[in-house]
Amino acid sequence: MQLRDRSRGASPMIGLTPLIDVVFILLIFFMLASSFLDWKGFEMSVTVMDGQARASSDIRPATVNVDANGGLSLNGEAVAVSNLAVTILRNHAGASVHLRPVNGADLQHLIVVMDALGRGGVTDVDLIE
Asked: What stretches pass through the bilayer (predicted)?
């Protein structure tokens, strides 16, 4: 039995070319597999209400209160987020909507409500305090 002498041969070389090929293939895979999100922003205006402000129209605005638990009330009456836009369009057509966070409402709840209003076709939404 003849064994190879380890000290006689050169150390094995590890080629970097296959590693670079694999990295490029992974890079191309992730570039093609990923999708770039379509970011849509909310257009909103902040209304600062003071005692001297007057309404520019005779239509009373609809006020939506969002509490800390995500509960909604439309002009004091409880309403579900799924029915909010329909109710506003039916009962307060043409009125602006004032969205008011109360009792430390979570920002995520506000975003859910604003998204529901936007999807439902309500466009005139103000965030008030």
From this structure: 12-37
Distance CA 117, CA 120 (A): 5
Strands lying side by side in the sheet with 97-101: 45-46, 125-127, 97-101, 62-66, 72-74, 77-78
Look-up of token digits 């998204």? 115
Q: What is the number of alpha carbons within 13 Å of residue 105 lying toward its C-beta?
A: 22
- Strands (E) located in 25-119: 45-46, 62-66, 72-74, 77-78, 97-101
What does the DSSP 8-state code read for residue 53?
A: -
Distance from CA of residue 101 to its chain's centroid? 17
Distance of alpha carbon 52 from its chain centroid, rounded?
35
* Closest-CA residue to 101 (of 79, 125, 129, 80): 129
Please, are residues 107 and 99 in contact by the beta-carbon 8 Å criterion?
no
Q: What is the pTM of this model?
A: 0.57
Per-residue pLDDT for the chain (129 aa), expressed as one digit of tens each? 666 665 566 777 788 899 999 999 999 999 888 877 666 666 665 555 555 555 556 778 889 999 888 888 988 888 888 888 898 888 888 888 888 998 888 888 888 888 888 888 888 888 887
